[in-house]
Amino acid sequence: MRAFSYARAQSLQDAVGHSGCLIAGGTNLLDLMKLEVETPEALLDVTRIGLDRIEPQGEGLRIGALVSNSDCAADDRVRQDWSVLSRAILSGASPQLRNKATTGGNLCQRTRCPYFMDNHSPCNKRQPGSGCAAIGGANRNHAVLGASEACIATYPGDMAVALAALDAQVQLEGPGGSRQVSARDFHRLPGDDPSRDNVMEPGEVITGVTLPAPIPGRHIYRKVRERSSYAFALVSVAAVLRMDQGRIAHAQLAFGGLAHKPWTDPRVEELLVGEQPGPALFAKAADLLLENAQGQGGNDFKIPLARRTLAAVLAEATGE
Fold this sequence. Notes:
- Helix content is about 30%, strand content about 20%.
- The protein is an alpha+beta fold.
- The strands form three sheets. The chain has a five-stranded antiparallel beta sheet.
- A hairpin with a 2-residue loop joins strand 6 and strand 7.
- Helix 5 runs antiparallel to helix 8, helix 10 (about 265-270) runs antiparallel to helix 11 (about 280-290) and helix 11 packs across helix 12.
């Protein structure tokens, strides 16, 4: 690990506009620093600036950026009214990591592509213009949707997938003031600049996440992975569905493990609403979701796996 300076922020104002790297739980950043993938010259500890409370906001809920994953998942309000979020968080990492990981840090975690984590391999995300070793390499865990010739890495988290399904809002504070971004739009696709993971501007700080009013219906998070714990998703589906008189009255879906960001497709949601559930409808939804999917050889299996996982989630949510 290379030498760096360390300071502790005493307020949000100390953090906004800071040119160094912010650190809270450090569950991802410290690993990247040990590998010298991240080499910040300065760290600013933000663990004492507040932002660690879960509070009502209108009909919804505001989760501070420094709320731990464990506290968020265990909150009675989250478990009762936004249970897809609790389920997603509990499917990720280990209890020890969830105790340290924060809401804001979780959103900002970086890909676990092995070529990104290896300083000896070409990686456009780590070193723009160097190439993408995953294309034509070992790419079992890589993207089948939204990838580019510059990068086929996937976003690794679970929490953000549930936030995208819920259409939560990410609150930001920067030198230019406050703004909020839909969780569905917070992360970027790689395009020709995969070095940028999200839409945050220099000097901006995540201050919290706002959940909308509770959505009645079934909340499901299904994660398909290599082993039953402590593994990243090959495919995951976050779903909030409500039935009315035998038809799907409301549907919100997001997918993990398939793209550079939590993947959403409003067309799939629109297709489902108003229809009677059944295998034919589920297959049609999968066709639409995966119409532009492209495997890279090692991850070709993800496409049929995503079809089966979506169908299973829809069947569970609708009672089919």
